Amino acid sequence: MNSQQSGKEKVLLVVVDFKSDRERWPAPEVLAEMEDLVAGCGGEVVERMVCPLDKASATYLIGSGRVQDIAAAVSNLGIDTVVFSYDLKGGQQRNLEETIKTKTIDRTQLILDIFARHATSKEGKMQVELAQLEYLLPRLVGHGIELSRLGGGIGTLGPGETKLEMDRRRIGERITRLKRDLREVTTQRALKRKQRQEKGVPSIALVGYTNAGKSTLMNTLTQAGQVTRETLFTTLDSLSRQLVLPHHRKVILSDTVGFMHQLPHHLIEAFKATLEEVREADLLLHVVDVSHPHFRRLQDSVDEVLGELEVLEKPAILVFNKIDLLADRHGLERLKDNGNHAVYICAKTGENVPLLLEEISRVLPSTVVEIDVEIPIGRMDLVNLAHEEGEVYSVKYYADTINIRALVPDRVAGKFQKCDVHSPPEEKER
Q: In 172-192, which positions are buried (b, 16+ CB within 10 angstroms) versus exposed (e)?
């Protein structure tokens, strides 16, 4: 089935291969990731061009000769959209479109388009609109009425034609309102976190490169019912669920938006409300797709974003996921970094997930205490509480008392201590 029969936009993909980036992000890897992004927008790549560059051109970003090659391909192949792997300045984008004679967008617009397609909650939609408008604002100068041509197709989904035709002042006002509304969301989240902290419930955040399997792991651990697809940026809306660890220890597990290398800074800024879950977490689970041929680069990219969020010093567990896709697992143990906790799992099948839960229990800052108390015979409510909230080692019944040995959260341990018939009076008062 060709592109016209399938109804998909025909895309020409231009990979800008800067000499300074080659070692870190070789052109074939950039090309593969860009193809995934285009597929996530419903487009079909029908032509690919790699443009080696030592430095950028102010007019087109790439050389004028390659621009003519692109224009010829657009004419011959009936290309609908040209997508650049590197962000274009407003002037460069306008110059390219005037020469190529078709819609031209960059990597950030492609990512924003996927974000707009996957945002479902009110908060998610606000965050995407904020990111889109902040991207659009500096590009308004010189576009004028030409913005009306952005009414449909890849790279145009989101604010909509009427918003794109607003002048700078009105867009600025909308950005201000969105930021204010998102600050309110941040305040509400902070209040909920404070309530959890007062109850002594630790929080854990899932982080990782997009499509590493975070949502699948979330579903496996908490039966959250998150939508999972083999596409980039499936999850945009933060989701939190209760997780019960071994020894009946309760924690809150939060899924977050996936990261990507060279993630535009204003995207991180727009999703600050969601990413607060990462900043406030007691423990991070860094999920890595170990089946990816260059997973170390993806892991490093996530660490860069975590560095921007100033959370690299937080306790973390490396969760090497998708081990079911490995032809040879013998080298897994060598992947463990010095000083890092690591577990090797398959979130999809549940393989080694119990080991992950044990590791979380071991690494998570302790909020449980062991009690050995004698309580009045009539306090069966405390016996039930010990079973519900902790791990009971033994319960012994005597004529007037009950002896309980258990591991319980420190937030409820005081209830047992107050009823301990052998506790000193001053301890009972506390």
A: eebbeebeeebeebeeebeee
At residue 156, does pLDDT exceed 80?
no
- What are the two backbone dihedrals, phi and then psi, of residue 165, each rounded to the nearest 5 degrees? -90, 0
* Fold entry, domain 8-113: Rossmann fold (3.40.50)
Q: What is the CA radius of gyration of the chain?
A: 27
Rounded distance between C-alpha atoms, residue 271 and residue 275, angstroms: 6
Residue 297 has pLDDT above 70, yes or no: yes
11 has pLDDT over 70: yes
Domain range annotation of the chain: 8-113, 115-179, 201-363, 368-429
For residues 204 and 217, give the distance between their C-alpha atoms in angstroms, rounded to a whole number: 13
421: Cβ contacts below 8 Å, ≥ 6 apart: 374, 375, 376, 401
What lies within 8 Å, CB to CB, of 128 at 6+ separation is 112, 115, 116, 119, 158, 236, 270
| Separation of CA 86 from chain center | 22
Q: Please identify which residue in the block is written with the tokens 């004679």.
A: 101
In CATH terms, the fold of domain 201-363 is Rossmann fold (3.40.50)
Q: Closest by alpha carbon to 247, among 370, 124, 330?
A: 370
Q: Among candidates 51, 100, 94, 93, which has minimal Cα distance to 79? A: 100
Cβ atoms of residues 378 and 366 within 8 Å? no
253 neighbors 167 (Cβ within 8 angstroms): no
Residue 13: pLDDT band with limits 50, 70, 90: very high
Q: What is the pLDDT of residues 30-70, one digit of tens each?
A: 898 899 889 888 889 999 999 998 888 899 999 999 999 99
Average pLDDT of the residues of the chain: 81
Q: Give the span between the Cα atoms of 220 and 347, in whole angstroms.
A: 6
